[in-house]
Amino acid sequence: MPTIKAINHVAVVVDDMEKSLSFWRDALGIELHELRDVPAEKSQVAFLPLAGAEVELVMPTTDDSGIAKYLAKRGPGMHHLCLEVDDIEGMMKELKAKDIRLINEEPRTAADGKKYAFVHPESTGGVLVELYQL
Ligand code: CO
Fold it and tell me: What is the DSSP letter of 115?
């Protein structure tokens, strides 16, 4: 039985990285581990690890990505919650069997080899959920 292991990260979409960091890093005092351009996602991402999980601030760098369209439509705010799972294929199969709507039919593989897939907010009470296998 596939098992959820942890909350891996919370992703927040932002339109102004410095302004956003002035809250998360400067006001709250969470350490900024890395600020990186992610060309594959057409985004700049700030990683702020916290107690085994991470806050990720994602700022689109073009107007044509999915996340840029999300930002244009809904404004800055919470984007997704990522849960680590030990068997992503198994979990996706179980979710499908339970009529949960998935955005990705198959897991995608990131540059660093991790597998991930998204569950549609329609099936989760309005939260975009990312599944992630290390
Ligand atoms: Co994510």
Answer: E
pTM of the model: 0.90
Percent of residues, the chain, with pLDDT higher than 90: 90
Measured in angstroms, how far is the CA atom of residue 60 from the centroid of ligand 1?
14
The CATH number that applies at residue 51 is: 3.10.180.10
Query: How far apart (Å, rounded) are the C-alpha atoms in residues 104 and 119?
Result: 8
The number of CA neighbours under 13 Å toward the Cβ of 102 is 20
What's the gap in Å between 49 CA and the centre of ligand 1?
13
Ligand 1 centroid–CA 113 distance in Å is 14
Give the structural domain span for 64: 4-133
Structural domains in the chain (count): 1
Instruction: Dump pLDDT digits (tens) for 84-123.
Output: 999 999 999 999 999 999 999 999 998 788 999 999 999 9
The answer to whether residue 124 scores a pLDDT higher than 90 is yes
Query: In whole angstroms, how large is the CA radius of gyration of the chain?
Result: 15
Amino acid sitting at position 66: G
Name residue 101's amino acid: R
Check: CB of residue 56 under 8 Å from CB of residue 12.
Answer: yes
